[in-house]
Design goal:
This protein has 369 residues and is of the alpha+beta class. The chain has 3 domains: 75 residues, Arc Repressor Mutant, subunit A, CATH 1.10.10; 175 residues, Beta-Lactamase; 100 residues, Enolase-like, domain 1. Helix content is 45%, strand content 17%. It is built from 12 helices and 10 strands. The strands form 3 sheets. The protein has a 5-stranded antiparallel beta sheet. It has a 3-stranded antiparallel beta sheet with strand order 4-5-6. The radius of gyration is 23 Å and the shape is globular. The two termini are 43 Å apart. One of its GO terms (biological process) is negative regulation of DNA-templated transcription. This is Heat-inducible transcription repressor HrcA.
Length: 369
């Protein structure tokens, strides 16, 4: 979301989110003056909060109330404001180290089975985050790409066909990426382009695990065909999620009772739909949390943070889902995440999930050594 905020607006949004996370009460200017050293008057804070409300980052639950962060406000907070000072960076590092230490002290690779280890990690993650924890059992088999083909089916429509090493075939229909020229492209030219791109991809991708494709640098495509890159990346990722979800998906779920005591979950029907998703529709949830996050330039695993309406599953569109993957070498084999209200201690939850994912990657390496 591209929203340009002044330093003052950033500080006041940051303080508003922090205060609301801590209190679960709509935030007024007086509370910010009393608890945060913002260096401005209450009237100035009210004016800035009004601007933030017009920008869709805050809203008023009712006329006489203070403001509450919107999903967009939380998104700005996570993407831009979560580490506004060295103090906050240090806090996240401390949380990550504390999580790692707790996992090491309470879990014992040498004496436990992998399933028992994951169950123990799920309970610790729920306790540390105050959220529902979600850890998937690892995928012990991975499909290897044998052949990929792009075919034009009709004007503006193409099919991606993937054949794995087990000679299983998977396909996906999609719209041809738009071109800048207004003139209609010659179908024969498109066929030749698709064949060239198919040959290029087979040369570079054949023999790779489907799980690896999410980490590839798709900018390697020749400039003439870069318009194919983004939709190919998303299409292959979707095919990967379809083909990898096991028939009997198992997700370790812990911490449901604790998180449902939060005021955001006071509606019985909402609670029922969330519990139904966690217990009866784990295949849908698996596809969502097993999506490959980006990797930072430092090589560290980054988490995926979905806030409110960013979640495609209706039962959790008022929640925040934070997830990452644990790996065997460079290949993701399972996922770890937390689910809670959008009013969430994001610094803590992100640090805990990232640290748990790193720990489980190390543990999985031990069990497969």
């Amino acid at each position: 979301m591209e929203v340009q905020l002044t330093n003052r607006q950033q500080h006041i949004l940051w303080a508003t989110v922090r205060h609301y996370i801590a209190t679960a009460e709509p935030v007024g200017s007086k509370a910010l003056v009393e608890e945060y050293d913002l260096g401005v008057s209450s009237a100035t804070i009210r004016n800035v909060m009004g601007v933030l409300e017009k920008s869709g980052l805050l809203y008023q639950p009712h006329t006489s109330a203070g403001r509450v962060p919107s999903d967009s406000g939380y998104r700005i907070y996570v993407d831009q404001l979560i580490t506004p000072s060295l103090r906050d960076i240090t806090r996240m590092e401390v949380l990550a180290k504390e999580t790692e230490l707790t996992l090491q002290q309470r879990l014992h690779w040498e004496d436990w089975s992998l399933e028992a280890l994951l169950q123990g990690a799920a309970q610790i993650l729920a306790t540390l985050s105050g959220c529902v924890s979600l850890i998937t059992m690892p995928q012990t088999t991975t499909a290897i790409l044998r052949h990929l083909q792009l075919m034009q089916i009709e004007a503006g429509r193409i099919m991606l066909i993937v054949v794995t090493d087990a000679y299983e075939t998977h396909s996906k229909l999609m719209d041809l990426p738009p071109v800048r020229e207004e003139t209609q492209r010659d179908p024969e030219v498109i066929d030749r382009e698709l064949q060239i791109v198919s040959n290029f991809l087979n040369t570079h991708l054949r023999g790779r695990s489907l799980l690896e494709l999410g980490n590839l640098d798709w900018s390697q495509l020749d400039l003439e065909f870069q318009r194919y890159g983004e939709f190919l990346k998303s299409s292959v990722a979707e095919l990967t999620r379809r083909t990898l979800a096991p028939a009997a998906t198992q997700i370790m779920v812990r911490g449901v009772a604790e998180v449902l005591r939060q005021p955001e979950f006071s509606q019985l029907e909402q609670v029922k739909t969330i519990i139904h998703l966690l217990e009866e529709e784990q295949d849908q949830l698996w596809r969502l949390i097993f999506e490959e996050p980006e990797v930072e330039e430092t090589g560290k695993q980054r988490v995926t943070v979905r806030i409110g309406a960013e979640n495609p599953l209706e039962p959790i569109r008022t929640c925040t889902l934070i997830s990452s993957t644990y790996r065997r070498g460079s290949v993701p084999v399972g996922s770890v995440g937390v689910l809670g209200p959008t009013r969430l201690d994001y610094e803590s939850a992100i640090a805990v999930v990232a640290s748990a994912a790193d720990y489980l990657s190390e543990a999985f390496g031990y069990f497969n050594s």
